[in-house]
Amino acid sequence: MKYVGGAAQGAAEEQTTGERRTRNRVARSILDHGPSTAADLAERLGLTQAAVRRHLDALAADNVVEARDQRVYGHRGRGRPAKVFALTDCGRDAFDQAYDVLAADALRWIAESAGGGQDGQAAVSAFARARVAAQAERYRAIVDAAAPEDRTRALARALSADGYAATTRSAPGPAGEQLCQHHCPVAHTAEQFPELCEAEAEVFSRLLGTHVQRLATIAHGDGVCTTFVPQAPQPAEPDGDDRPAAHPAQTQTTDQASASTSGRNPA
């Protein structure tokens, strides 16, 4: 009987270990791909939706994931939007964020040592730019080696190698794509010091050779850091010899219109 009891206990422990591994796979999939529905997770992990929901319930009870309404871009169909599951701050803490307190304390010390106020903010910004500059140098060769239409994907691969779990996808609306970072090792620190996010966006702009726009950040409570990268402009066609020359008065009017709208976004 002792042997049977020991075997049963071993089987129970093995089952518990297997359950824990599967839950870790579910959480890791959400980290790598961003907020996901149960159907998405079931397809990626080769599990049934019922099994995924059971693991999600356990993860939610442990405050690792939370349910949210799915964001819908463009036309919204009938019915309620599907629920997606995103990592909580507690869930992200399990993925290599143990040094956030130390980093925040160090940045706070930098700001105070510079005198606080605008001087302190400038010191933190200088640190943030220096930090990502070294990172950018490693990425530059990878991005420059890619074709213009593949540079955002090349940057995503480089970011993923550094633990940012980055992907790209087509952007709704204006022509371009979105660079998505599903993990941020310094999310909690960036919540207190947004200069880190701003410096990173500046580096993305320089590497890709175009102005980029931050749409969402994990530091501000979004599920994914999302950056819009506009499509690279096509080279202009050479002027034809048979094109009529602009009338001097027309040229003057155009120049005045350009000057009057410089520095403003088009309506």
TrEMBL record:
Bias kind Low complexity: ranges: 1-15, 249-267
Region span, Disordered: 1-24, 228-267
UniProt cross-references to InterPro entries, sorted A to Z: ArsR-like_HTH (IPR011991), Carb_Metab_HTH_regulators (IPR050313), WH-like_DNA-bd_sf (IPR036388), WH_DNA-bd_sf (IPR036390)
Sections of the chain in a coiled coil: none
Pfam families in UniProt: HTH_24
Protein name: Iron-sulfur cluster regulator SufR
Provenance organism: Actinacidiphila cocklensis
